[in-house]
Specification:
Layout (H helix, E strand, L loop, with lengths): L4 E4 L5 E4 L2 E8 L2 E8 L2 E9 L4 E7 L11 E12 L4 E9 L1 E6 L2 E7 L4 E5 L6 E7 L1 E2 L8 E10 L5 E9 L5 E3 L5 E3 L1 E6 L5 E6 L10 E2 L7 E4 L4
């Protein structure tokens, strides 16, 4: 497994990305892209012209099969304890969705994990969310995971236990550094009381420099969690 980045078509014709096998083959004046699972072709495309490179890039989790899922729920690997008027900053990782480009053309997008959904809040007023489980950085390799920083500030006068956060899917951006590691936005979570937490995405300034590639457009947004945390 090579992780994120560009490859020369002549150097690597086939590789595994998670459980999938993808291949890019040039034939005379066209390029053929195929994605297979257990030997069965799922996607097969022909692109005019001979492509010199193809790339595998991280994508923020999309809406998936259910277009009504416009929010993302991330559950932490263990409860995060934050004292009154205190702040905690922790790094985690989640599996990224995958985008494949052949030359300049985006030809495929797919998740590496089975898409799961969760309801956040009541059936009447809640949000249907795309669901991910965060992992500790020490437990995951570089391949096809994206790292993010969660900063929780407790503005409440009692200790809190944070087990999850919810944000709009379109509020997430993704970055790749020169080593192929992927980063997502810093998530700023401010707990106001037992019922409300304000969650905001922010540009990952810590990693942002000329060596980074912006994969998805930044979309800084604020979201109020109204059902607890």
């Amino acid at each position: 497994m090579q992780g994120f980045g560009a490859r020369e078509v002549g150097a690597v014709l086939r590789e595994r990305v998670g459980d999938y096998e993808i291949s890019v083959v040039t034939k005379e004046n066209m390029t053929q892209y195929t994605r297979s699972l257990n030997g069965k072709e799922i996607v097969k495309l022909a692109i005019a012209g001979r492509a010199l490179t193809y790339s595998v890039s991280p994508r923020p989790p999309g809406r998936g099969r259910l277009r009504s899922a416009t929010h993302l729920m991330v559950r932490l690997p263990y409860p995060l304890l934050v004292g009154p008027m205190d702040s905690v900053r922790v790094e985690y990782a989640v599996p990224a969705d995958i985008e494949v480009k052949v030359g300049d053309y985006a030809v495929d997008w797919f998740p590496l994990h089975g898409i799961k959904y969760a309801l956040y809040g009541s059936p009447e007023r809640g949000h249907l969310c795309r669901y991910l489980r965060a992992e500790e950085l020490a437990r995951v390799g570089q391949e096809y995971f994206m790292r993010f920083t969660l900063q929780v500030t407790n503005s409440f006068d009692e200790p809190i236990r944070v087990t999850k956060f919810v944000i709009p899917i379109n509020a997430i951006s993704t970055y790749v550094d020169t080593s192929g590691k992927a980063y997502s936005d810093t998530i700023l979570m401010n707990v106001i009381d037992r019922r409300r937490a304000v969650v905001r995405t922010a540009v990952a300034v810590r990693y942002y420099n000329k060596k980074l590639i912006l994969v998805a457009k930044r979309a800084v947004k604020t979201f109020v969690m109204l059902y607890g945390y």
